[in-house]
Amino acid sequence: MALLINEECIACGACEGECPNEAITSGDDIFIIDPDKCTECYGFYASQQCVDVCPVTCIVPDPAHQESKEQLAAKFSTDHPGSPLENTETWTALKG
Ligand code: SF4
Ligand code: SF4
């Protein structure tokens, strides 16, 4: 499942550089996550890096983009061909 940034975002920018998929960009008022790029950090880290640094807890699961681990792995492989999946044993989905 991709994540989304809700209206509580204060546009601090802390999350943008933490995303291993370059899925986060600055929007008009708040930051935005591209659901086609976000793997919920699956394949890279055990936890969601943007969530870990966000000071206002405004990054939440996107119910419109629910995906299985297999789908996230496929997205990872498409965007990072040849790269090994890492930390999949300890990865945990963000609870809504
Ligand atoms: S969960 Fe990971 S991949 Fe998705 S936007 Fe946040 S840092 Fe990027
Ligand atoms: S870290 Fe949180 S508050 Fe800061 S820009 Fe990212 S989503 Fe918005």
Q: Give the cofactors and ligands.
A: iron/sulfur cluster
Global outline: globular
Number of domains: 1
**pLDDT below 50 for ≥5 consecutive residues: which ranges?**
none
CATH topology: Alpha-Beta Plaits
Structural class: alpha+beta
Q: What is the CATH architecture descriptor?
A: 2-Layer Sandwich
> In total, how many beta strands?
4
Q: Write the element-wise H/E pattern from the N-terminal end onward.
A: EEEHEH
What is the number of helices? 2
Relative helix content: 10-25%
Termini gap: 11 Å
CATH class (first level) name: Alpha Beta
How much is the average pLDDT?
96
Pick out its properties:
Alpha-Beta Plaits; alpha+beta; binds iron/sulfur cluster; two-stranded antiparallel sheet; single chain
What does this protein look like?
With 96 residues, the protein is an alpha+beta fold. It has a single domain (3-79), classed as 2-Layer Sandwich (Alpha-Beta Plaits). Helix content is 17%, strand content 12%. It is built from 2 helices and 4 strands; from the N terminus they run E-E-E-H-E-H. It has helices at 49-53, 69-79; strands at 3-5, 24-26, 31-33, 59-61. It has a two-stranded antiparallel ribbon. A hairpin with a 4-residue loop joins strand 2 (24-26) and strand 3. The longest helix is centred in the C-terminal third of the chain and has 11 residues, at 69-79. The chain is globular and about 35 Å long. Residues 3, 18-19, 21, 23-24, 33, 38-41, 48-50 line the site of one iron/sulfur cluster.
